[in-house]
Design a protein that fits this description.
Rossmann fold, three-stranded parallel beta sheet, 5 helices, single chain, 30% helix, 219 residues
Length: 219
């Protein structure tokens, strides 16, 4: 059995957009001259969904109405979360942050994250994002801190950090967020730091297991 892998990108311009990708999938199959087999199509982000259906206007209108009903444009819950995912994207500006002393706050966190000698902030613009993966993740963490939202999600954030800075993240930065009354969800394989959590939920062989941590009682 032969397995072929390829990818394609699709640009969108609207908040909710429904696109017919039939031709894109067909082109991917044809480039390998495959006549018989199975085409497996997946998307990287939970903000995308795949549907197998006829591309008829009435069906599209119904689907759009359903999406808008499930996720209304003005839902405030989206402003509760600040996240740094493993496949994060880093803008060169601090978007959506309007604090009067934004530059001063950013410079303070740059120093805390040991980036003040590599990056500066002026009028909300980062001087550079051309950094190592670990340093770019620190910049993403800077943005999350400045957003100052109630709930934080960090997806394997420490995976690209050196051991010294992993310790800073788990033993200083996360407890600081907790002390400020934030709820923090950390997805990690760093079992040596599981004791920092108030509650650990492990995924083992497809099964969820919950256990208490030395840091506190389960929430």
């Amino acid at each position: 059995m032969k397995v072929y892998n390829t990818s394609f990108s699709l640009a969108t311009d609207e908040r909710t957009e429904i696109s017919d990708i039939t031709k894109l999938v067909r082109d991917c199959v044809q480039q390998f001259a495959v006549t018989t087999g199975i085409a497996l199509v997946n998307t990287l982000h939970t903000t995308c969904a795949l549907f197998v259906n006829e591309f008829q206007s009435a069906l599209i209108d119904d689907l759009r109405s359903l999406i808008e009903k499930i996720v209304p444009e003005r839902d405030g819950y989206r402003q509760v979360f600040s996240a740094v995912f493993s496949d994060f994207y880093l803008f060169d500006r601090l978007l959506g942050l309007g604090a009067a002393d934004l530059d001063r706050q950013a410079q303070r966190w740059l120093a805390e994250l040991k980036l003040d000698r590599k990056v500066t902030v002026e009028h909300g613009a980062l001087s550079t994002t051309a950094l190592s993966t670990g340093q770019r993740k620190r910049l993403a963490l800077l943005v999350a801190y400045l957003e100052d939202r109630p709930v934080y999600v960090f997806d394997e954030w420490a995976a690209d950090q050196d051991p010294a800075y992993k310790a800073v993240f788990y033993e200083r930065l996360l407890p600081d967020l907790k002390a400020r009354g934030k709820t923090v969800l950390v997805i990690t394989h760093d079992d040596r730091y599981f004791h920092v959590a108030d509650r650990c939920i492990e995924l083992d062989a497809g099964q969820l297991r919950s256990r208490h941590s030395a840091a506190g009682s389960a929430a």
